[in-house]
Amino acid sequence: MISGKIPDEASLVLDKIKKKLPGNYFLLLCLLLILILGGILPNLISGQWSWLDQPRIGNIQKMLALQESGIKFSDLKTTDRSQGEIGEGKWSVQVVESPDGKRITVLLKPQVYYKSQPGVEWSDISSISRWNQGETSNSHFEKNSDKILLFK
């Protein structure tokens, strides 16, 4: 049976620690309280929280034009450009070709609203995995259609 008592040596050490720590804990608690109140009180008084409203975009017209026209690369030729919805936003889908014939798909989502986040994605199929691009085809799917398409 294990005794619930603490050995005398351990209780002496615990008593020494308890005697030294209360002042340190009180000082640490006061310092933490001062830091918290110093950060919260100005916002609480003014009613404006810094993280609630993000800064506005100064060049919103350029961002809207970028979404419509895509991005221009100095040494790459744009072969195809369209706009598509991926997830919750509109993306500019652009296929560019390098002088040596390699094709790169660039997906660009400019920040057109001050609360939305920008994004860039690209893929170079033949570079990393050395995949071969086979036959390409375009498909169109309607959202509210009663037709079922089967592919074999």
Topology:
Blueprint: H1 8-46, H2 60-69, E1 77-86, E2 89-97, E3 103-109, E4 119-123, H3 125-128
Antiparallel strand pairs: 1-2, 2-3, 3-4
InterPro entries: Cyanoexo_CrtB_assoc
Transmembrane segments: 25-45
Keywords: Membrane, Transmembrane, Transmembrane helix
Number of domains: 2
Fraction of helical residues: 25-40%
Mean pLDDT: 74
Order of helices and strands: HHEEEEH
The portion of residues forming beta strands comes to 15-25%
- Contiguous low-pLDDT stretches (5 residues minimum) are none
The main sheet comes to: 4 strands, antiparallel
Total number of beta strands: 4
Class per helix and strand makeup: alpha+beta
Record the strand order, biggest sheet.
1-2-3-4
Global geometry: elongated
Distance between the first and last residues' Cα: 72 Å
Q: How much is the radius of gyration in Å? A: 31 Å
State the helix count.
Answer: 3
How would you describe what is shown here?
- The protein folds into two domains: 7-44, no CATH class; 57-133 and 142-148, no CATH class.
- The chain has 152 residues and is an alpha+beta fold.
- Strands 1-2-3-4 form a four-stranded antiparallel β-sheet, with helices on one face.
- 35% of the residues lie in helices and 20% in strands.
